[in-house]
Amino acid sequence: MKKSELITGVILTLAGAAALAAALLTETAFDGIFWGVAGAGLCLGIGIVIRFFRWSAPDRSEQYREILENKEIGVNDELNRKLRDQSGRIAYSTGLGIISVTMMILAVLDAAGVIRDSRLTILVLGAILLIQIILGIAVFSHLRKKY
Amino acid sequence: MENRVEQLRKERGLSQEDFAKAIRVSRQTVSSIETGRYNPSLDLAFDIADFFGKTIEEIFIRNGGNNHEEK
């Protein structure tokens, strides 16, 4: 494993420890964020450091090389790529549907007086929907020009 | 599309895993090609043909591909 990965692991661990200290020693409205950063930083950082020492052992270098090779094959495998594209398309259409339905439900509940002040949420969801559609069309035409 | 990938691989005494490594794809891809659930790209078809020292047509058989010639 590269030394830069160890450095990243150490930095993440230190950031996590600092956030943990801040969460424990202070009482502010940001405590929730501190706990979140502490958990993510410590788990990720310690995980990377452990992985570095585990795979840096000389007797494991061949095994690690094989794992990396398999990983690379898995990423570039054409069937995996095709399936990733397909799942991306399904997730995209489903996402559009979910946002549209959520907007409608919120609008109905708002009109019925079940919930209040949902206008901003509906507007934000509408903006996300619009951005997704525009982005989808723009990226498609950009890619189409390449072929 | 039918193919002779499994037959040729077995003739060379290779496991799906070894063959997949040699043509740099996953074992699942080899399995899907052999069972006909997935037709490889032209690039991969060439890689497979090169590996076995054959032409693409000798390995991949297009069902009904010659219909237009029979007319």
How would you describe this protein?
The complex is a heterodimer of chains A (147) and B (71). Chain A is mostly helical and 147 residues long. Chain A is built from five helices and no strands. Chain A has two domains: 71 residues; 69 residues. Chain A is flat. The relative contact order of chain A is 0.07. Chain B contains six helices and two strands. In chain B, strands 1-2 form a two-stranded antiparallel sheet. Chain B has a single domain, classed as 434 Repressor (Amino-terminal Domain). Helix content of chain B is 58%, strand content 6%. Chain B is globular. Chain B is mostly helical. The two termini of chain B are 21 Å apart. Chains A and B meet through helix 3 and helix 4 of A and helix 3 of B.
Outline the low-pLDDT stretches of chain A: none
Largest sheet of chain B: 2 strands, antiparallel
Shape by Cα distribution of chain A: flat
Helix and strand content put the structural class of chain A at mainly alpha
Q: DSSP strand (E) fraction of chain B?
A: 5-15%
SSE layout:
The complex is a heterodimer of chains A (147) and B (71).
Chain A: H1 3-25, H2 31-56, H3 61-76, H4 78-111, H5 119-146
Chain B: E1 2-3, H1 5-11, H2 16-22, H3 27-34, H4 42-52, H5 56-59, E2 60-61, H6 67-70
Antiparallel strand pairs in B: 1-2
Helix pairs in contact in B: 2-3
Quick rundown:
With 147 residues, chain A is an all-alpha fold.
Keywords summarizing the entry:
heterodimer, A: 147 residues, mainly alpha, 2 domains, B: 71 residues, 434 Repressor (Amino-terminal Domain), two-stranded antiparallel sheet, 6% strand
